[in-house]
Amino acid sequence: MSVHSLRFKMPRTNNKKELIIDAAIKVFARKGFYNAKVADVAKRAGVADGTIYLYFKNKDDLLISLFETKMEEILTRFSSLIEKKISAEKKLREFINLYFLMIEQDQDLAEVFQVELRQSSKFLKDYHNQKFIDFLNIIGAIIEEGIAQSLFNKNISIHNVKLLLFGALDELARQWILTGDASRSLKQTANETADILLYGMLK
Amino acid sequence: MSVHSLRFKMPRTNNKKELIIDAAIKVFARKGFYNAKVADVAKRAGVADGTIYLYFKNKDDLLISLFETKMEEILTRFSSLIEKKISAEKKLREFINLYFLMIEQDQDLAEVFQVELRQSSKFLKDYHNQKFIDFLNIIGAIIEEGIAQSLFNKNISIHNVKLLLFGALDELARQWILTGDASRSLKQTANETADILLYGMLK
Amino acid sequence: MSVHSLRFKMPRTNNKKELIIDAAIKVFARKGFYNAKVADVAKRAGVADGTIYLYFKNKDDLLISLFETKMEEILTRFSSLIEKKISAEKKLREFINLYFLMIEQDQDLAEVFQVELRQSSKFLKDYHNQKFIDFLNIIGAIIEEGIAQSLFNKNISIHNVKLLLFGALDELARQWILTGDASRSLKQTANETADILLYGMLK
Amino acid sequence: MSVHSLRFKMPRTNNKKELIIDAAIKVFARKGFYNAKVADVAKRAGVADGTIYLYFKNKDDLLISLFETKMEEILTRFSSLIEKKISAEKKLREFINLYFLMIEQDQDLAEVFQVELRQSSKFLKDYHNQKFIDFLNIIGAIIEEGIAQSLFNKNISIHNVKLLLFGALDELARQWILTGDASRSLKQTANETADILLYGMLK
DNA sequence: GATGAATGAGCCTTCATTCAT
DNA sequence: AATGAATGAAGGCTCATTCAT
What we know:
The structure is a homotetramer of 203-residue chains.
Chain A: H1 15-31, H2 38-45, H3 49-55, H4 59-83, H5 88-105, H6 107-123, H7 130-148, H8 158-179, H9 186-199
Helix pairs in contact in A: 1-2, 1-4, 1-6, 2-3, 4-6, 4-7, 5-6, 5-7, 5-9, 6-8, 7-8, 8-9
The structure holds a DNA duplex (21 and 21 nucleotides).
C-alpha cells in the first residue's frame, strides 16, 4: 500500500455502506427484493458487484441491514415524540402525521418497508424483526399513556389497537404510493384517520 | 369394463387445476412465492412438473390464477352480505367477523394473500388486481349505505375508510397468523375492532 | 367393437400414414425439423399426438420415413428418364428440367430435402441415406452413358460431376425458394444451367 | 508482485470469446447445433457454462456470432483475390482452389457452415445473412470481370452462375468431408471443377 | 479496499413419448 | 385404432457469490 493511502480517514461511519443501502432501497422499491439483482444495486450505487460483499454478507443481509439501519433512524424520529409533554391524543395525532410525512418524504423506503418487510420477516432465515416490534410499541406506549390519563377507553386491547392503527396507516400509505394519488393530501388523510380512530364512525 | 366406469364423470370443474392451486397455496404459504419451486407445488399436488404447465402459463400465472380463483370465491361469500336486510352497522360487524372467520378457516390462503398479494400487485407484470378492488368496494358499499341511512358520519371519506378498515383487519390477521397466537380469539378481536372503528377510542 | 366398425377397409396403403407424412413435410419445411413439434405435425395432420406413434417409432423415424417415402416417388419419376431412347445430352437436360419442375411443384418437400436432408444424414443415428445415393447415381448413369456415347469428355470424373451437378441444381433451387423469386423462371434457369455445364462459360 | 506480472497484457482481442467460438465450431461440427448442449461448448472451451453468456446473448447468438466472425475472416481472404492483376479465368481458378484449401484446413468450420448455415439462415429469427451474400458477390464480381474482359460468354446470368458455382463447390466439399475421402485430393477436384465450368462437359 | 470477470448451482420450462380410456 | 392428458428427463439461462488482480 502506497504512502498516499495513509491519508486521513474520515471518521464517519462507512460512506460506501450507506451508499449501497440507499441504492438498495431504490432498487428494491422499484423491482422488489426477489426481482432485484445484486448487480442492479451495485450499478445504482456506483460500485462494483463485489464491493457489496465487502459490506454485507449476502443479499439477504443487505436487506436486513437496510431494515435495521433505516428502522433505527425512524425509531429515533418517533421516540422523541413519546417524551413530549402533550396529551396522548395529541401524541397519537402527531404520530399519524409524522408517519404520513415520512412516507411522503421517502416513498422508496416506504415501499420497501411495506412490501419487503412482510416477505422478509417471514422468509428470511433467523431474522427476528425487533425494530419493527419496537416501532409498534411506540404506538402501544401512547395508547397506554392515554388509558393511564383516562383519556382512552380502558377496555380497548393495546395489542390489538397498535396493530389496527399500524395496519390502517400502512394500507392508506400503500394506496397513496401505488396510485400516485396526489389529489388527496396525506395531511388530510392523517386527520381523518385520527378522527375515526378517536371518535369512531358513528354519527 | 365394470358397470361403475359407466361413469358419471365428475362435474369436470377442472379437478386437476384445483388440485394444483390448492397445493400452490400451501407451498407458497410455507416458503413464499419466490422461494417455492414449481417442482414443490407439483410434488405436493401429486402431479408431474409438466402437468402444471398444462393448466398455467407459467409460475407467475399460477399465482395470479390462484388469486383470481380464490378471490372469486371470497367475493361471493362477501357479496351476499351486502344484500342482507340489516343495518350498515350490523353489516360492518358481520363483514369483520366473516373476514376473521375466513382467515381462521384457511390460514394458508390467508398467508399467501397477505404476503404475496402485495408483491404481486406491484411486481407481476401486467396484473391489475381488479378482484381486490372489488373486495375493497364491498366495504365501500357498506359505508355508503351507512351514510345514506344517516348511521355513519357523512364527513368521513369512503375511500379512506375502506382502506383504513381493510388495512386494520389485514394487519391484525397477519399478526395472528404469524405468531400463531391462539390465545386471543379472532372472534374477540373482531368485536374490538368493530367497536373501535364504530365508537372510537375516546372514553 | 361394434358391428359398424367392421366396415369395408380400404386396401390402399395406410391413409393416415400418408396424411402424417404430408403434414410433416409442411411443418418441417416451415419450422425446420428441430424447431417443429410433434404436436405441430399432429395438429396439421388432424390427428392426435399419440396417433403419430402408431405409425412411426419416434420423431426421427418420421423424418426418415418421410425421406424414404418421398425419395421413392422421386426416384420413380427420374428412373424412367434413364430408359428413354434419347441422347445423354438430352437426358441431362431433361433431368435438370425435371428437377426444377419438381421443386416448383412441391416447394415444401424441396425445403425439407434441402435443409433437413443434410442435418439428418449427419446427425440421425444409424441412417445411411441410400435413396439419396441412388438419386445421385441417376446423374452418374447419364454421365457414363454420355461418355460411352463419346458425347462427353472421357476425362471428367463421374463422381465429381454428379456432385457438382446436384450441388448446382440444389443451390439454385434453394435460392429460388428462399427469395420467392418468381421473376426468373426456373425453366430458363434450367436451360442456362444445362448450357454452362455442357458448353462451359468461356466465350 | 513479480516483475513478470508487469504485464504486457495480451492485445486483448477478446481472448475468451474466440476460445468459445472455436470450441463451438468443434462441438457443432460433431453434434450439430441442435444436438449440442451449451454445456458441451463450455466444457470444450474450458470455461463455465455461465461464461458463455457473458459473451453471447444466447445459444442462437453464439451460432450467429460464429458465422459473422468466421465469415469476416473468410471474406478477407477471398477479397484480396479480386484485386489481383490476373485474368478472370485465373481468378476463378484461384477462387475454387482457395475454397477447397479452406475446407481442407478447417473441416470443422466447414461442417458447421455447410450444415448449420442452411438451418440458420432460414430458421434463426431475424438473421439476414449479409456476409454470405457478400461472399457470393465475390464470385459475381469475378464473373462480371470475365464478361467485361470478353473472356466469358456475355449471355450467362451472373446471378445464376454464382449460385451454380457455389452450390457445386459446396456439395463437392460436403461429400469430401462426409466420406472422409482422402483418396481424391481436393486439389484435383478443384481443377476438374474449374475445367468443367469453364470448358463444359461436351467433348 | 475495490474490481468485475468468472463461476456453477439451481430452476423454470419444453416437448417427445406413453398409456389409460 | 385413436385419443390427448400426463409425464419427467433434459437443458438453456440466470444471478448470487467468489477471487485473482
